[in-house]
């Protein structure tokens, strides 16, 4: 499992979504790596793209609402990073619809998803948690 407990933000809804994201990307990578049948791979790609276009968009939205709620100063910049990722997913989805399953394209996609997820959750998203703690400490003064 690629998920690490240190990625937790301490916000149950967000943490659950992050865990789900890691699980899906993990399963996607595994299906691509294994000598699964063409049908299995295509099915997993369909599933993953549907998930990325739905659940991920929802997660970004929920996380942005949380940032607004705590008055996170990096909100605008963070929202842009999310929007860029959504654009990338849409682009890959369009390419897939046009060309069909392509092992190389999908491996590239899975690799980028994983790298992005780890970097984003372990760095960008952690800053939200750090700010919430800092702000909490201030509120106690
Ligand atoms: Fe996130
Ligand atoms: Fe985020």
Labels describing this entry:
binds fe (ii) ion, single chain, 141 residues, Four Helix Bundle (Hemerythrin (Met), subunit A), mainly alpha
Major sheet description: none
Question: Which secondary-structure class do the elements indicate?
Answer: mainly alpha
What low-confidence regions span 5 or more consecutive residues with pLDDT below 50?
Answer: none
Q: Tally the structural domains.
A: 1
* CATH C-level category: Mainly Alpha
The helix content is over 70%
The total strand number stands at 0
CATH topology: Four Helix Bundle (Hemerythrin (Met), subunit A)
Span of the ends, CA to CA: 40 Å
Beta-strand content bin: under 5%
Report the C-alpha radius of gyration, rounded: 17 Å
User: What count of helical segments does DSSP give?
Assistant: 4
Judging from the principal axes of the Cα atoms, what is the shape? elongated
Tell me the CATH superfamily.
Answer: Hemerythrin-like
Tell me the series of helices and strands, N- to C-terminal. HHHH
Instruction: List all distinct small molecules, including ions and cofactors, that are bound in this structure.
Output: fe (ii) ion
Mean pLDDT reading: 92
Any idea what the CATH architecture is?
Up-down Bundle
